[in-house]
Known about the structure:
CATH class of the largest domain: Alpha Beta
Structural class: alpha/beta
Radius of gyration: 20 Å
CATH superfamily of the largest domain: Phosphoenolpyruvate-binding domains
Distance between the termini: 21 Å
Helix content: 40-55%
Number of domains: 2
Amino acid sequence: MLYSTITAEQKRVRFRELLANGSIHQFPGAFNPLSARLIEEKGFAGVYISGAVLANDLGLPDIGLTTLTEVVGRAGQIARMTGVPAIVDADTGFGEPMNAARSVQELENAGLSGCHIEDQINPKRCGHLDGKGVVELDVATRRIRAAADARRDPNFLIMARTDIRASDGLEAAQDRAKALVDAGADAIFPEAMRDLEEFASIRQAVDVPILANMTEFGKSRLFTVNELRDVGVNMVIYPVTLLRMAMGAAERALDTLRDHGTQESEVPNMLTRTRLYDLVDYEGYNHFDSGVFNFAVPEVFRQQA
């Protein structure tokens, strides 16, 4: 009922344990708190909160338009709904080193288990688009060092994302990954790797966990968990998958309403009333206060569940 009873500190400990066990873990992207609850229910290790999704949810492109306040607010709403760790895209730290430091403390306060901060110039671009620019090495490392120094919970994960592969090549990505770890990064997110061998090369360069971004329509094909595990990847995110699926379904439903004047043909594709009530835990609220939910779900809806 209400929010997770597992504290943010406990989730961060669990996240560190996950990364230490040597296996690979999937983090689907949540586009709202209810989808985060579904991710947890389906047995995934954690939840990812994409900066692109947060921007798109506001009707904006992913070009650095969202603010720290907007990201912290929405990320906190999502993180508090589940008992699994939630990691969030903190873009470039919303500014320079001091901004990155404040971002980390605000995300800690909001209950996140970790974040990643990238080395793009401001304003940033989606990682799988062309035309990205990265900052000089000293700026990138100062961002990460400031973030690492600012955290108060040592289990809050500071991940460094580097986009330098697209502009300077794979060797530059290896060198930058090493420098970012030396600056205090607990994990590395090498963006827009083109094949498994490139992930393997980052694995060889650093001894911290690495993350693979399996976003659709990106620079690489959608590798399987087993393929990524075999080259040493520890975390896999699917940042926009659920949003794209949900918006695709919404578009089809609206087309049906417009073309046929009724949604009846789409009803079999919908989450049933019973399933939705289950996800939002109506029954738990009923046990707490019978005045909140004191009716039976009609049998017709139970049959459709």
